[in-house]
Amino acid sequence: MKKLFASVYKEGLLLLRDIEGVLVMFIMPLILLIVIALLQHKSFQNITEEKIQVIVVDFDRDELSRSLSEGMTNSHMFEITSVSGNDSTLLEQARKDVAGGTYQIGIFIPPNTTSVVKSRAVSLVQQQINSAIKTDLNNLNAQGQIDLFFDPITKESFRDLVKSTLMQFSASVEKRIIFEAYSKFIDALTNQSSELDYPTTPAIQFNESLVSEYTSGIVPNSVQHNVPAWILFGMFLICIPIAGNIIKERSEGSLARLKAIPVTYLQIMSGKLIVFVGICLIQALLMILVGIFIMPFLNLPKLQVGGNIVALFSISLASALAATGYGILIGSAATTQIQASAFGSVSTVIIAAIGGAWVPVMIMPAIMQKISAFSPMNWGIHGYYEVFLRNADTLEILPDLGKLIMFAVICVGASLLFRKYAKNV
């Protein structure tokens, strides 16, 4: 045990001699977390949180255009700017504004669009009345036309969503006009005058609920995703200084002198493991504090960590063990610092990419979702998600903890076997 304590003390002294390097290990992941969270914030926002800028060029100035604008405004999805008249320059300017990015959508409602809908409604009603009083049915298939023009960078899926929403509003207006036409014909046939209120609420109410695995009411956002993602990335990036430390000791002969005490390679590596796991845990704590206290000042959501501190510490510790074990394996296998830094940095980026640090696994293609299941970063991010979003306890994240700890054991075991093999060679 004294040898282990001595090894830990030695590693601590080495780190304190390079205090600038230690600060870089803490500060750079924090900066990366803040920058990426800011960049990804709009991507995680729900479409209803960020209103769509729409300009409506209204040459109709009748019931359809008014109802369409009111319905879009009441949906809380759109920010409407209306211009009306019959000057063609208004339409040309609106197209320029959309093309320039001032608005995402432009809507042009031509003159007499409402009249076309009303004529069609009258023709529909006349199909069921006495032939003696029927008038022209030529308007039965009449169609009005509303022009939509979009910002060139607008995605096709977004355009389809907007078109379906506008079709819903226009269909609602058409139904009300048909209802009013029926009411007027019935009044004419019964020789009476009645005023019927068309219901403003739909006949069917849709109740929404979350049925994903994250059902606590906390929906993943830019902060909830990026804090665990960059905690894991920062932890695994620590493999570079660990590997460099090991290679430096080996090349300078320090490792050979240490083993002459005598002390085993496992005891030497255990000192590094304990010290760097501690650094990883401090790293994780700092990132969580940034998510809670700094992100709101940047107009980002506040990190919700749940209430299970034991589970949070468990997933942080298991992730730190996995990352430190990975660094020990690289340091034991590499022969030069260039090899260790090149392989460590590139492999960390690859593990992060397939593990869901850059892009959440939930929006990856199906093949990448299957591949991500083999990334230790994915296990760690999933464990943090469970704690943050579902308030999971330690037992519920046991599969993720088991994978991370097993990964750490395999890495350390492989490093011991590798050094034994290298010694024999």
Features:
abc type-2 transporter like fold, mainly alpha, 15 helices, four-stranded mixed β-sheet, 425 residues
Low-confidence stretches: 214-218
Given helix and strand content, the structural type is mainly alpha
Oligomer: single chain
End-to-end gap = 31 Å
Give the amount of beta strand, in percent: 5-15%
Please, how many domains? 2
Lateral strand order in the biggest sheet: 2-1-3-4
- Name the helix and strand elements from N-terminus to C-terminus, one letter apiece: HHEHEHEHEHHHHHHHHHH
Quickly count the helices.
15
Radius of gyration based on Cα positions: 33 Å
Residues in helices, as a percent range: 55-70%
* Major β-sheet profile: 4 strands, mixed
Shape: elongated
Global mean pLDDT: 81
DSSP, total strands: 4
Question: What does this entry look like structurally?
Answer:
The protein is mostly helical and 425 residues long. It has 2 domains: 2-45 and 221-424, no CATH class; 52-190, abc type-2 transporter like fold. The protein contains 15 helices and 4 strands.
